[in-house]
């Protein structure tokens, strides 16, 4: 079990930044981040998430028109903007990822099942990325206010991948953060059966 400092890093004291420090995120750290994410469980080890890390000014400017007006400053200031996507044809990798299973044929024969599975498990892997980023000392800001089609056309067109959400990564400026927003109590959000 993690000690209190580990729990603080991931949950209790972790905050979503509104502004970013001008401190770069090294490519080796992004590689380490992905390696940690890739170890998280997915159903049948399907691993459908795909990531595009935008780090340069050219990529940012291509992204800018796709952002909702309220997200422009928060997103553009991040050292790294990850497009968290999923591959609808993830099942083509299953003979390698789950060699003892006959899973590929299930998904190849059912487009709806393949899309549902890739979206669900890709989202799960995006959540792992938030926790892995925090574990590595990075801050993370998930963003859903963007034009999905525009992002796919600009960054994913040659892949067939589908954009899910954006994840800003870097070192947050924690000065003047407002108090943490309320959360639902256990009794409001959970049922014990």
Automatic annotation (TrEMBL):
Signal peptide: none annotated. Gene3D superfamilies: NADH Oxidase. InterPro entries: Nitroreductase, Nitroreductase-like, Nitroreductase_HadB/RutE. It comes from the Bacteria. It holds the Pfam family Nitroreductase. Residues 126-171 form the Nitroreductase domain. GO terms for molecular function: oxidoreductase activity. NCBIfam families: PRK05365.1. PANTHER family: MALONIC SEMIALDEHYDE REDUCTASE RUTE-RELATED (PTHR43543:SF1). This is Malonic semialdehyde reductase.
């Amino acid at each position: 079990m993690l000690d209190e400092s580990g729990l603080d890093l991931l949950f209790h004291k972790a905050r979503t930044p509104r502004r970013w420090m001008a401190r770069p995120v090294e490519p080796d750290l992004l590689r380490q981040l992905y390696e940690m994410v890739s170890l998280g469980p997915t159903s049948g080890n399907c691993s459908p998430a795909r990531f595009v890390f935008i780090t340069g000014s050219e990529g940012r400017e291509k992204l800018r028109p796709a952002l909702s007006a309220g997200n422009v400053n928060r997103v553009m200031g991040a050292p790294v903007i990850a497009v968290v996507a999923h591959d609808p044809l993830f099942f083509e990798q299953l003979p390698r990822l789950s060699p003892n299973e006959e899973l590929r044929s299930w998904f190849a024969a059912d487009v709806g099942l393949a899309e549902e599975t890739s979206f669900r498990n890709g989202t799960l892997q995006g959540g792992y990325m938030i926790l892995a980023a925090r574990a590595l000392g990075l801050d993370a800001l998930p963003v859903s206010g963007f034009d999905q089609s525009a992002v796919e056309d600009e960054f994913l067109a040659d892949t067939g991948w589908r954009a899910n959400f954006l994840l800003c990564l870097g070192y947050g400026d924690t000065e003047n953060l407002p108090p943490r927003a309320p959360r639902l109590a256990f009794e409001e959000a959970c049922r014990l059966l």
